[in-house]
Amino acid sequence: MDSAAEQHFREFVATRTPALMRTAYLLTGNQHDAEDLLQGALTGLAMRLRSIDVLDLEAYVRRAMYHRQVDRWRVRLGRRETPTDPRAVQLDAVVGDSSGRIATKLLVQDGLRRLTAKQRAVVVLRYYEDLPEAEIAAQLGWSVGTVRSTIHRSMAKLRSLVPDLAALREEM
Amino acid sequence: MDQDMLRSVLRDISADAVPTPLADRALRGASRRRRTRAAAGVAVAAVLLAVLPFLLPAGNRTPQHPGPPAAGTPSAPATPAPSATPDVSRSATAEVSPPGSSIPVSPPATSSSTPPPG
């Protein structure tokens, strides 16, 4: 990579890292994995910087993160972590803070950890990035039907894990 | 809880992420990956170059069994055909037979068995 390309890369990373890190954090559920995920995507970008259009840098990184996360899920199928008890999370939240907002946040956070990486990616793309289903399908390389059914299953699981989400109906 | 609430909660959760400087790490990782790829390419090329000499003669060393002669092609005679011209290479020492004679005529002997004249 020549110096101009490296400079451009550094500027992009410095500018967009906070937003990209937030997405990576939602996808992985913890800081360490989020850093790994984003760094892997940025490494791939650094290797291909000359062949990628300047305007597409962020799109490339986001797409790489989603794909890496889903692939990582495939790799880690054999060693799933045991999630914590949601009732314990709820109890801690109620004891620690009386406002229901933080309790809900903790419950949703725990519910997201219990989803598969595919389901989590779809929820993030749909409700955090606000992408329509067709766009999500294009990002992940799936069919629209697969995206729709994955959203449906993810939200059903979230509703079962987080009672406050019971009234939530996914937008179709 | 409606969808706006879920979006809001997701934004709250994402705000817990701490941005860390990743440019240097990503650049180091990229150069490390490039070196690894280059080394792997060199290794594959070296293995191919090492194996190629063994592979090529093996391809040429396929046994060549003579096939059965073609039906229309006569086989070569077992004995050579008589030549019309005498063999020049043996003319100095060969026995010369006159035409029509079956007795070989030897050249004058110079051996010690004949007594010298006188």
UniProtKB/TrEMBL annotation, chain A:
Q: Which residues form the RNA polymerase sigma factor 70 region 4 type domain?
A: 108-158
Pfam family name, one? Sigma70_r2
**Where does the source fall among the domains of life?**
Bacteria
Q: Which GO terms describe its molecular function?
A: DNA binding; sigma factor activity
Q: Which residues form the RNA polymerase sigma-70 region domain?
A: 17-74
Entry keyword set: DNA-binding, Sigma factor, Transcription, Transcription regulation
Record keywords: Lipoprotein included? Answer: no
Which GO terms of type biological process are on file?
A: DNA-templated transcription initiation
Family statement drawn from the similarity comment of this UniProt entry: Belongs to the sigma-70 factor family. ECF subfamily.
The name this protein carries in UniProt is RNA polymerase sigma-70 factor (Sigma-E family)
From TrEMBL, chain B:
Name the segments for region: Disordered: 57-118
Q: Which residues cross the membrane?
A: 38-56
What is the originating organism of this protein?
Pseudosporangium ferrugineum
- Give residue spans, biased composition: Low complexity: 72-86, 96-118
* The protein's name: Uncharacterized protein
**Keywords from the UniProt entry:** Membrane, Transmembrane, Transmembrane helix
Taxonomy, superkingdom: Bacteria
